[in-house]
Amino acid sequence: EAGVTQFPSHSVIEKxxxxxxxxxxxxxHDNLYWYRRVMxxxxxxxxxxxxxxxxxxxxxxxxxxxxxxxxxxxxxxxxQPAELEDSGVYFCASSQERGLAxxxxxxxxxxxxxxxxx
Amino acid sequence: xxxTTQPNSMESNExxxxxxxxxxxxxxxxxxxxxxxxxxxxGPEYVxxxxxxxxxxxxxxxxxxxxxxxxxxxLHRATLRDAAVxxxxxxxxxxxxxxxxxGTKLNVKP
Lengths: 118, 110
Description:
The structure holds two protein chains of two kinds.
Chain A: E1 5-7, E2 10-13, E3 19-24, E4 31-38, E5 44-50, E6 53-56, E7 65-68, E8 75-79, E9 88-95, H1 99-103, E10 108-109, E11 113-117
Parallel strand pairs in A: 2-11
Antiparallel strand pairs in A: 1-3, 3-8, 4-5, 4-9, 5-6, 7-8, 9-10, 9-11
Chain B: E1 9-13, E2 18-23, E3 32-38, E4 45-50, E5 55-56, E6 61-64, E7 70-75, E8 84-91, E9 104-109
Parallel strand pairs in B: 1-9
Antiparallel strand pairs in B: 2-7, 3-4, 3-8, 5-6, 6-7, 8-9
């Protein structure tokens, strides 16, 4: 079974440019999460999709970040325009269960996309 | 957000047991306790989880205090590959997002 994949593995862009990160969850997983770790900080939750719907986007830092999950399969996270403080590693995770079962469910993480904004 | 407290770092010798503690004094009755680890340059990886009873799997054991205010991840025989940052995470009913703290960086000496 293929795990969570993320593309690209590394992206270097100039401040003010746009970058789109992609995440392919494990097939059949309705839940998809985005997290990020910025330099020297802890891994922070960004948002949670259930199928194509945003269940929780309380962690999105500002309106420069746009996440989509059309068709409930892969997801994209667009940063436009990118700022220096957006540099970090962006992780995607997926899981299967919801509700109380979701609380005990395993989240499977991708390897992350390292974003560098110059 | 249910908070967890872990030591910043721990050290172990290879092939010896390791006990990684976690305090979660504000845990709610339906919160699950998860442990994940992150190897260098990789995404977090599931280790084990539990609710009230102690749990064992092929990777580790999880010992949960009777009052559930603390738990301990037990690696029975540490290997060099177990060197990683270990995170203790609580999840609540219908709030599946993970709150990662700073974790415990485990160093395993040969």
